[in-house]
Hints:
Strand order of the largest sheet: 1-22-21-17-16-11-10
Strand content: 15-25%
Radius of gyration: 22 Å
Bound molecules: glutamic acid
Amino acid sequence: MLRRVRLVTWFFAALWAAPVFSSGTPPLPVRTVNVTAASAAVHANPEAATGYAERELAYAQHFMVSAANPIAARAGADILAAGGSAADAAIATQLVLNIVEPQSSGIGGGGFIVNFDAASGQVQAYDGRETAPRSVDAELFLQDGAPMQFREAVNSGRSVGAPGLVRALAMLHGEHGRLPWAQLFEPAIAVAEQGFAVSPRLHGLLSDNDALRAQADAAAYFYDEQGQPWPVGHLLKNPALARVYRTLAQQGPDAFYTGWLADRMVQAVQEHAVPGQLQATDLEGYRAVRREPLCMPYKVYTLCGMPPPSAGPLAVMQILGILSHTEIDQYAPDSLQAVHYFSEAGRLAFADRDAWVADPDFVDVPVSGLLDPDYLQARAALIDAHKSMGKARAGSAGAVSAPSGQTLELPATTHLAVADADGNVVSMTTSIESAFGSKIFVEGFLLNNQLTDFSFSATGEDGAAIANRVEPGKRPRSSMAPMLVLHNGKPVMAIGSPGGSAIINYVAKAILGVLDWNLDIQQAIDQPHYGSRNYATELEQGSAIARHADALRAMGHEVRELDFPSGLQGLVLTPTGIQGGADPRREGLAIGQ
Ligand code: GLU
């Protein structure tokens, strides 16, 4: 019998209690997008904060799953207990997340997977990022020559990319699965058919989502006949998704990309009031990509993560590489000086990210230049210990490229980390982009709006082409940062988070917390958030860190306080067992045996 390591009483008690939410979702910013205009909107958190519930560090001897929902984490742990590999458990967990946390991820979206294979001692990276339809051009998000309203773009057929998650999961399973593919669908089919209790967070996010309510198919599933969101604890069943899962279980991933299911997705996108250009050929032609993982030495460790088209791990590595030339590890994690150094390093990394990173199949991303130790040392030298540099400029990193452009990445994503008893580890971040994606609901699942991660404008203010502009078949730049930390060739940590571009700061600070500040993984996740995305220096609203606001201003920082609903899920692997952490800002759980 699987031992539940972490107490989950809070969660189930919460199912029956009056939900505690912050006062509503901040409105979506009105966006007139060009390279500079997005800066005002970079703080948006449309998947709202829904409270904070303390967690305890979880321990296990053999295996562990940390995921954003207890039902999903349990499904993964059951697969591990049945002899499944970390890859098997990640797949089973993800399939359940699609049902119980539908706002964040699912088969209508994409994701990135980083896997450590114990037998070979190698790390693999799988890219299941959505692609732009083949018939689009750089004007996809322009109306009468001007960028369209961001909210309209999100809630439309136009933003839907060819979903990559199913192909990526199948690729992971093909190379690292142990149990039969069909078996991995069983827990999710059971949850879909028998139903699950609507969680406080799902209820809260449904309460304030008129765009979702406006889509008839979505409304029929998520709301009652009066248009009210199902209450906390309501048993919600998803027979349509159960049917889809049975089809995929029996026929494999091709059944998602061809045939009736593909036809339904294409029809829904094309018949939307703001239609998109997704066609059957885009789905049929979708391929996941196995990429060379991005790795960088860091002190006695090696950091590994997803390479571009995600900008996430690259920026995390830059931040940590830059900070290794400062004294940050001499200061407490919640000290003024730590906030200053961390924010300044973030400015430098985000300046480079905004300038250089896009889909590497379309753009030369100067990855090795950006991680070169001499380059990072030179960047660190720009940091003054007592005064903010203000807006950082991108470095030249020894390569020539177009600016990648500003985009507004909205937090609706999920991260999971799995370690099996044989030492295999998976770190996986998946997404449908905004909360409930495009709001287009097909056969029990939501289609993504991931194409809004492209720059809406094709050229910058100087007229130069933007690297992250829309192009046919291209993957939009991401900030998702599924990462592993290795020591002596073996994983010691797996971490990642949702949170749009703030993911980069969440993950960098969690790694710093464990490796440099000797925090346990739960303490590292719990730390109040802070950092800079090369605009204001941001402090987590209502947290103890906000006490530094005035002192930071005196050091030249422009300071903003805002909600930071991260969803860090992480594991630390020690010689004596596995430790797990889950973000108190969401509903996650780490369980193992
Ligand atoms: N679409 C974003 C990205 O790929 C993720 C959004 C989120 O984290 O919620 O970076």
